Amino acid sequence: MKNTEPRYETKVVKAIKGTRASTIKKWESQGWELIGEEAGKIQTTLTFRKPKKPISPLMIVGLIVMVLLVAGMGIVGAMFEDKGAKTEASPSASVSTTDSSIAAPPSTSPSIMSQEASEQPVITVKNNDDFAELVQTKGECSPEFYHFVKKYQGRVIEFDGYIANVTDLQYHSDVLVTAGDYDLNTVRGPNFKFQMVDIPEAMNFPKGESPGVFDFGDEMHFKSEITGYRDDPCTIYLSPISTQVR
Fold first, then answer.
1. Residues near 123 by beta carbon (within 8 Å), at least 6 away in sequence
2. 238 and 143 in a common domain
């Protein structure tokens, strides 16, 4: 008798304090079902599942045809490459090259301030009322986060904060920080994120002062350029210029 029970794939997501609701909403909108959660002091581990799509015979046939087509294209391409190699030495043959570039992921290296940014004062809580209010905002999200980035994108900010979360990727890491001193009972302001950075190198610590690894709650002083904003979850993206351990 054919088994009609649905098969599921699961996903484990970590949400820092203050982003649980928006994280659940994000994954549920993509068809995932929350089946478990484990609350920690700093982050909540959420487990989701969704049914696996059955593979139909037509899909299998389609995949086989695609593999055969790709293999055929590879053979034809090799033939043309061989022919091109033979004609390369001919004086009449002309070679045309096109320059292609791939945009580097944000924050993979310390930011270099533009001339325009360097000519403007660095934004701090002492000289900018908007920033002072921003880091004291209560709640998971606020329209003020978006308005702040829209007004000051490309400017440099400097503030005391702490490490809220580190997500290790294949070659880089995503680092989430929060303004202020480390305190489990009080979380204010937006999440600031350094995306796809090499830690600790890309954070540009003074020589001999790098912590080596980042731990939750590590207090640091950040100087960074504002590069962007995403409202799901509410996150301000930064590119590191310099970092100091407090």
1. 131, 152, 155, 156, 157, 158
2. yes
